[in-house]
Write a structure and sequence with these properties.
β2 (about 60-65), α4 and β3 (about 100-105) form a beta-alpha-beta unit. The protein has helices at about 5-10, 20-30, 40-55, 70-90, 110-120, 135-150, 175-180, 200-210, 235-245, 260-270, 285-295; strands spanning about 15, 60-65, 100-105, 125-130, 155-160, 190-195, 215-220, 250-255. It is built from eleven helices and eight strands. Helix content is about 45%, strand content about 10%. The protein is globular and about 45 Å long. The termini are far apart. The chain has one domain (about 5-295): Homocysteine-binding-like domain (TIM Barrel, Alpha-Beta Barrel). The protein has an eight-stranded parallel beta sheet with strand order 1-8-7-6-5-4-3-2. The protein is an alpha/beta fold. α4 (about 70-90) runs parallel beside α5 (about 110-120) and α5 (about 110-120) packs across α6 (about 135-150).
């Protein structure tokens, strides 16, 4: 892993994460009439093509698909992504590409998944689409144990979803979410999926007021219609996410459900016009007070 370069890159610019993997797999299957079970050689071949499409669009970070429940399959997935990332890094060494191992369900398999991703060359782990903080704490504790066992720091992005009203589906507030995960010292804290880019602006603004960590955001392209198509075109999606950058709220941006390489290409282009949210250089007293108050409830 290249931890130092990850942190350096985050200081220099807003990094662009890739888009919806499931969306891209479905589009791939529809276009080529090819389907495959997660973890099979055929699926890894599909993922290799999808990774390259996102890298070609300008993504700095590519994620593995979710669903790798054991160490061996997670390692294969990370290796596939690592090969694609290294291929594009070799073309422009001044812009390194990174690999994130994606973990959706923070259950007993989280530790084995993480070990497989790291063994396969992942630079970081993303705990994503969390609906409550209990599962996140379990996942973060498992990753801490893996890091201690391996004797190395594992950069982790912690990402929750929202219910459209600015809270997690569990009813927990942004402040409660932050209080639960901040003690683990993540690489970034943020939100993904939700009900489209507009739904994340308010939660991100609240998080930016208290967070001592970098902030990530990769919303969906909106709720699907009757045909399963999300409402945001790439142009509308990029303009809405640009509001996060314009207000100085984020360090990492990307897309979730309903987004594809076309969305990411516009995001990557827009990101070049904005500076990343500066990591606070001093402790934020109000944030610590909030975290303490919530933890004592």
């Amino acid at each position: 892993m290249t931890h130092r370069t990850i942190y350096e890159a985050l200081e220099d610019r807003i990094l662009t994460l890739d888009g919806g993997t499931g969306t891209s797999v479905r589009h791939y299957a529809a276009a080529r009439g090819a389907t495959a079970e997660v973890g099979t050689p055929a699926h890894l071949g599909i993922m290799r093509d999808i990774h390259r499409r996102y890298l070609e669009a300008g993504a700095d970070i590519i994620e593995t698909d979710i669903g790798y429940r054991d160490r061996a399959s997670a390692m294969s997935a990370a290796r596939t992504a690592r090969e694609a990332a290294d291929e594009y890094t070799s073309l422009t060494p001044c812009k390194p590409r990174f690999v994130a191992g994606a973990i959706y369900a923070c259950d007993a398999s989280a530790a084995s998944q993480a070990e497989g991703f790291i063994d396969g060359g992942a630079d970081m782990i993303i705990l994503e689409t969390a609906t409550d903080t209990r599962g996140l704490r379990d996942g973060l504790a498992a990753l801490e144990a893996v890091a201690a066992k391996r004797g190395e720091k594992i950069p982790v992005i912690v990402s929750a979803t929202t219910d459209g009203h600015g809270t997690l589906p569990s009813g927990e507030t942004v402040e409660e979410f932050y209080a639960a995960v901040s003690p683990y010292g993540p690489l970034a804290i943020g939100f993904n999926c939700s009900q489209g880019p507009q739904s994340l602006l308010q939660p991100l603004a609240r998080l930016a007021e208290i967070s001592e960590f970098r902030i990530s955001a990769y919303p969906s392209a909106g709720l699907p219609d009757g045909d399963g198509n999300c409402c945001c075109t790439p142009e509308v999606f990029a303009e809405e996410v640009a509001k996060y950058m314009r207000q100085g709220l984020v360090n990492i941006i990307g897309g979730c459900c309903g987004t594809g390489p076309e969305h990411i290409a516009l995001l990557a282009r827009a990101a070049g016009h904005y500076m990343p949210r500066p990591k606070p250089k001093r402790e934020i007293a109000d944030a610590r007070n909030t975290a303490k108050a919530v933890s004592e409830r």
